[in-house]
Amino acid sequence: MSLSVKHLLGIRDLQRSDIETIFQTADSFKDVLQRPIKKVPTLRDTTIVNVFFENSTRTRISFELAEKRLGADVVNFSASGSSVSKGETLIDTVNNILAMKVDMVVMRHSATGAPHFLSKHIDVPILNAGDGINEHPTQALLDAFSIREKLGSVEGKKVAIVGDIMHSRVALSNIYCLKKLGAEVTVVGPPTLIPKYLANALGVNVTYNLREALEWCDVANVLRIQLERLKMPLFSSLREYSLVYGINKQLLDSLHKEVVIMHPGPINRGVELSSDAADSKQSIILQQVENGVAVRMAALYLLSGKTPNITVTGN
């Protein structure tokens, strides 16, 4: 099995067959993660560097776990405290790392398009762990994989993406991924946080009514407000946002059907999601975290070009 791309820069670059290949591979790796010994030597003698120019907790830990579960040698690079603070360029930083014989790069950067720029200048596979407000491909893959696991398939499912659509790379990658897999997508949030081009350019439904969206959907993927990216006030207060667009258990119980609740994290409890909703039986947030390791293992394995048998035959 292999992918049609050398790098995983964004979902828009993938074919549906690529996504399905990643899911099939992740199924095998998820079986590995259930064993007492949760490692396979698939990427032994492969060195992977995690280059993070932006803060991260879940994504960085998930990638590092995935790499170590595959038997890879892992190097973590953080921009803070590095020569980047002395004015070193992105290309010089990565080329210096590659001179140490690194085989793959996982990169997060606050600048939109940074991994795409880098892919034109270096010759090893790059996995985009989030670039600016553009894409976060592995998050979208693990979200869709979690829907597939919970509901049996993504095809034909109705998914509402709730919250700060304008500043969320997760939202854009999810829209691309869900549409490629045959799901219907509605985005919901304040008018100031939903780009005007979405309906026509990406073929999604747009509503500003949360209850209407929840009554329609099978799955609600709830996003946080990207306060660090807001350049100007786009709503009056977090309290007002929570009153209009926050999801709590009382709202969920009042619906005419049970809706699956997702969140890419970190959760701002009491703003977009109440604790009783986030921790309810309808929530698959922790399953998303678990699936993230298997999906990232699959992506790393497929991009590495290694071809050993990963079939799970027992404990």
UniProtKB/TrEMBL annotation:
Pathway(s) per entry: Pyrimidine metabolism; UMP biosynthesis via de novo pathway; (S)-dihydroorotate from bicarbonate: step 2/3
Ranges in a coiled coil: none
InterPro entries given in the database record: Asp/Orn_carbamoyltranf_P-bd, Asp/Orn_carbamoylTrfase, Asp/Orn_carbamoylTrfase_sf, Asp_carbamoyltransf, Asp_carbamoyltransf_Asp/Orn-bd
GO molecular function: amino acid binding; aspartate carbamoyltransferase activity
Known role: Catalyzes the condensation of carbamoyl phosphate and aspartate to form carbamoyl aspartate and inorganic phosphate, the committed step in the de novo pyrimidine nucleotide biosynthesis pathway.
Keyword Disulfide bond: no
Any one GO BP annotation for this protein: 'de novo' UMP biosynthetic process
Keywords: Pyrimidine biosynthesis, Transferase
GO cellular component, one term: cytosol
Entry's family note: Belongs to the aspartate/ornithine carbamoyltransferase superfamily. ATCase family.
Lineage, broadest ranks: Bacteria, Pseudomonadati, Bacteroidota, Chitinophagia, Chitinophagales
SUBUNIT field: Heterododecamer (2C3:3R2) of six catalytic PyrB chains organized as two trimers (C3), and six regulatory PyrI chains organized as three dimers (R2).
Chain's gene name: pyrB
Protein name according to UniProt: Aspartate carbamoyltransferase
Residue intervals of the Aspartate/ornithine carbamoyltransferase carbamoyl-P binding domain: 6-149
Span of domain Aspartate/ornithine carbamoyltransferase Asp/Orn-binding: 155-303
Reactions accelerated catalytically: carbamoyl phosphate + L-aspartate = N-carbamoyl-L-aspartate + phosphate + H(+)
E.C. code: 2.1.3.2
Residues noted as binding L-aspartate in the record, renumbered to the chain: K86, R169, R224
SUPFAM superfamilies on file: Aspartate/ornithine carbamoyltransferase
List of residues binding carbamoyl phosphate: R58, T59, R108, H136, Q139, G265, P266
Keyword Lipid metabolism found: no
